[in-house]
Structure formats: C-alpha cells, structure tokens
Write a structure and sequence with these properties.
249 residues; mainly beta; 9% helix; Porin; single chain; elongated
Length: 249
Amino acid sequence: MQYRFKSYFSQKNVLTLILIQCLFTTTFSQKVIQQNYRKFDEKLIHFGFMLGGNSTGFQVTPVSNAYEKYGIIALENVNQPGGQLGMVATLKLGTPLLRLRFIPTLSFQERVLKYYYPPLKPEDKKEIFQEERVNSTNLDFPLMLQFRTARYNNFASYIVGGGQFTYDLQSTEKSNQSYTDPFVKIKAKDWQGQVGVGVEFFAVYFKMGLEIKYSQGFRNAVIKDLTPVSDPIDQLKNKVWWFSLILEG
C-alpha cells in the first residue's frame, strides 16, 4: 500500500526555510543609506497586524493492513489554500535581536483526503477514488521566539521558532455522524510546533515584514468512529505552510 509520511520538521522542510532565508538576505541587501524609524529598536513593546494566506493539509498514516481490510490502494493528502488575519504583539527581550512574539489569529483552512480503490472491472485501467473535504475556522495562538539580524540600513532578516494552540470553531467533533454519507471527524483542539524565516523593511513610521512558517501538529487529529472514511486511517496530523505580511508600528 502506498502513502505519504513526513516526520516532524523534516530535513526537507527545514532546508527549504534556510534556502529561502539565504535568498531573502541576498536579494534585499542594500548600499549604505539613511536609516528609517531609528527609534523602533528602542521601544520595549510593539503592536501591529498580520494578513496572509496558507496551504493546509494532513500528515497521513493509514493502518498497516488497510488494503486487506478495506480495499484501499492508497490514501493521499492534497493541500488546499486558505487565509488568515491576526493581531501582533512583540516584546523585546533585552536586545533588539531577540524578541517574543504573540499573534492571535483567525485562520480559514481546508484539507482534502483522497481514497483510492481498485477498478470495479479487471479491464478498467483507472483506479476509483473518493474525496473527503475537511474545513476549519481556527483560533490560533502562536507564541514565538524571534532571532533577528542586526539592521543593515532599512533591512533585516530573522528566524522564528515556537509553538501554538489551535481551536477549531467549525469542528465536527461533537456532530452526529451520518452513516449513509459519512464524513471525517477531526478533534477541535491541537498543539503545533512552528519554525519560519522572514525579512523586515523599515519605513519612516512603521516596519513591514514578509514571513514564511511551517506548522506541524503533535496530536492525532482523527476521531475513529467506525465509518468507511475513518477506519483506514491510523493517524492524521495537521500541517500548514503560512505566508504572512506583518505591519508593526
């Protein structure tokens, strides 16, 4: 049986973020010019807002004998686009290069699971597949440590790492299951780890940042309720790519 499996913060994801960081640093390096918003680093606390998009999916682990039990050839995750909006609070930890960042966020996410079955007739070459969509409206509470480079004129880059608690306002965890048309039930609460990189540009009265993050859920999110869509699944863990524009004053 075929399926996709990725470990927490796999080497591929971390390497991707490092390469993006290097690309940002190289692209936005500048000649020496007059610095904007010099007093930004003198302030203890900064506030702002975040607007962005996301690409959301599941880390899927089917049961080991899914084909023999349920006739599943493969179980595939398909990432889907979404969006988010949040408020930003940043606290300087002694030095401007180290900050604690809290961004309570409202995010809209969708995931798609594809179930592949063998053809009904031997002469048919195409597999049969079934799609299950899982929609979420989340309240996310990420707490991150931000390690920033020293300012070079009106530019700086940074890395972030931390975790977040997520609560799904649209969760079907307590919904009555339909056994004639079953759906995938997901737990409302999740804990996720996060890593990311970003670049910052200092304007006259505010700072703008562009950030990319990767989140990985720690909990098994699926609710096993003896339905054809949940039985073949051993574990589902949330994973999200975040693309954000951050403005702080």
